[in-house]
Write a structure and sequence with these properties.
330 residues, ABC transporter substrate-binding protein, globular, 44% helix, Ferric-bd, alpha/beta, signal
């Protein structure tokens, strides 16, 4: 009997030891409540615990570079697609072709399977209607509106050193001006006069506009619509001259720990249930498995600039360096 009890104890220890190793370490650029919702559901369904850290796109790429020789995470979920392209170009991620990738159209995934898109979100302006009314100002409807002197120091946007959202603003203007870099930076200098503060993350400006700390902000429309759903007195307008978009994406980290569980999370994120959860976030999921009737904007009715993700990623450091010299240094 004692021998049997000893064997049972050994078996239980083995089971618990195995379970303790059933974990996946992740970096995410999703907003924290949304990341928690997804990762908690994954753990509930699979028993695999997700140990995650929330970072902006720029912070994630920087951390992956710093940890290149000793990766601390296995998967990066969310984050502007340009960051994932940049991570690929720097040899920080590894290819993986999920059996569920077939449901994501080719234009929304890497042809060599280094990254895959999850959803699209377009750049937009947020206006705190109460603050704007007090100032006698209307919501800006275009890029040339928001650089008007009447908006001087009344707008907030992120810093392109840490935010993929902010770099998307730069590339949107660049492509709007047909890749004329001098016109682009002339515009960015004018925009700088309207900016009172450059925030660390792309969603911060919208949150600060929601509480009236600043009347106007530039961010992604889905973040702004989520604030409105929670009672924020915001109005969302999409630039009439054309707007850019993020393709929030997902990658596996090269030589990351627990690659098997990382692939399980990767596959789960592409399943119908996870895609349905993502569709509730006011975004436009790109997978054919996701419902398409929940988005507050119809991307087919918007003027979208012609983005080139590979070029934008390859030129990010150069363009951000120029922004730092000419604008950030001030």
């Amino acid at each position: 009997m004692k021998k049997l009890a000893f064997l049972v104890s050994l078996l239980l220890i083995g089971i618990f030891a195995f379970s303790a190793g059933d974990v996946v370490k992740a970096y995410t650029t999703l907003e924290e409540p949304l990341a928690k919702e997804l990762f908690d559901k994954f753990e509930q369904e699979t028993g695999i615990k997700v140990e995650w850290v929330r970072l902006s796109t720029g912070e994630t790429v920087a951390r992956l570079e710093a940890e290149r020789e000793n990766p601390q995470a296995s998967i990066w979920v969310g984050g502007v697609g340009l960051g994932h392209v940049e991570a690929k170009q720097k040899g920080l991620t590894t290819p993986y072709k999920s059996p569920l990738a077939q449901y994501t159209p080719a234009q929304f995934r890497d042809p060599e399977n280094y990254w895959i898109g999850l959803y699209i979100g377009v750049l937009a302006f947020a206006t705190n209607e109460q603050r704007a009314k007090e100032l006698g100002l209307e919501a800006p409807t275009g890029w040339f509106d928001i650089i008007d002197s009447k908006y001087e120091k009344l707008v907030r946007v992120a810093n392109p050193n840490t935010s993929g959202t902010a770099y998307n603003v730069i590339t949107t203007i660049l492509h709007m001006f047909h890749e004329d870099e001098e016109l682009t930076f002339m515009f960015l200098h004018h925009l700088d006069r309207s900016i009172d503060q450059y925030t660390k993350s792309g969603s911060a400006g919208g949150k600060q506009a929601a509480i009236g700390e600043i009347p106007f902000a530039i961010g992604y429309a889905h973040d702004l619509f989520r604030l409105i759903a929670n009672g924020a007195p915001l109005k969302v307008t999409v630039p009439k001259e054309g707007t850019g978009f993020e393709l929030a994406s997902m990658s596996l980290i090269k030589n990351g720990p627990n690659p098997v569980t990382a692939k399980k999370l990767y596959n789960w994120m592409l399943q119908k249930e996870a895609q349905s959860m993502i569709a509730e976030w006011y975004v436009l999921p790109v997978s054919k498995l996701a419902p398409k009737d929940k988005a507050p904007l119809n991307i087919d009715e918007l003027r979208i600039v012609n983005q080139n993700f590979v070029w934008d990623a390859a030129n990010r450091e150069r363009l951000v360096d120029r922004w730092n010299r000419e604008i950030g240094a001030k």
